[in-house]
Amino acid sequence: METVLPDKSSYKALVTQISEMFVEGQRQAIVTVNRHLVETYWRVGRYIVDYEQQGSKKAAYGDSLIERLSKDLTSLHGRGFSLSNIKRMRQFYALYPDGATASYQLSWSHYIELLKIDDELERSFYEKQALIESWSVADLIRQKKTSLFLRLAATKDKEGILQLARQGLAVAQPADLIREPYVLDFLQLPEPHRYSESDLEERIISHLQQFLLELGKGFAFIGRQYRIMLGNRPHYVDLVFYHRILKCFVLIDLKREDAGYEDIGQMNMYLGYFENEENADGDNPPIGIVLAREKDEMVVKYAMHNISSQLLVSKYQLYFPDKEELKKIVSDQLGSLP
To answer: Does position 336 have pLDDT exceeding 60, yes or no?
Structure first.
């Protein structure tokens, strides 16, 4: 009997269809397993707390109960019941006594990192933001190290800080893109270090994934040294992105040192060009960010006089910010952050 070979185009479509279905099935299986694992660990924590609270001797149990549970459960079930993990389960229930307030979209590894945060507002922010931006555990660890919550909170009033903690950062306007300062530690430029703006740009391109994480949700990379013609002369925008949420181009001009008035004027010119020459139907006005090592607030204030709010000036640094200094700023604004 002669074998009939499948049509190549239809067979390729079949392979693609099966492959996509299989990958989605794997993803759903992981989500299901993760949800059950987090829910199970929450229930373990509840059992421990309920047991401790049964009698008047609950204070006597302490760590000895956890140690005994770890030993006995490990002998029965193997991995998963280390001393530190059982302590985290108990803490998980204590912080989320109403299980519905915990998100089962996050993994247990996410919650281990969240449970390490003592401050309730800060922990709530990272939980919400991990969901909004679909952070991996590694992403969450990095954002904690860079004090993202404190950096964002330092630029807001008391109500803004509380809203940030309750809802995470919802990008709705150009100002929501700014993180003061941006932390570019992943560029691995040691201090002190002499580097040019082209060196800085080259390193950012080499670490584009980390830079996109630092920028936040919604950025799509368009190009570097984006060429535009003005007055028969070529000009080059350092980095061009498109923001899917705000539906606009985002132009970034990198400065090795201070942001001067001429840099602000140049960016304003770029914004005018993009709005008139590059925007397509449905695009909103572009946003420009001058990203500099330093900025003189007075110079920026007067250089920005009568200039669109679509133009922003922010600082970057090559090392993690001083967390205690940021915490003090937020504490002063909030009046209650320890």
So the answer is: no
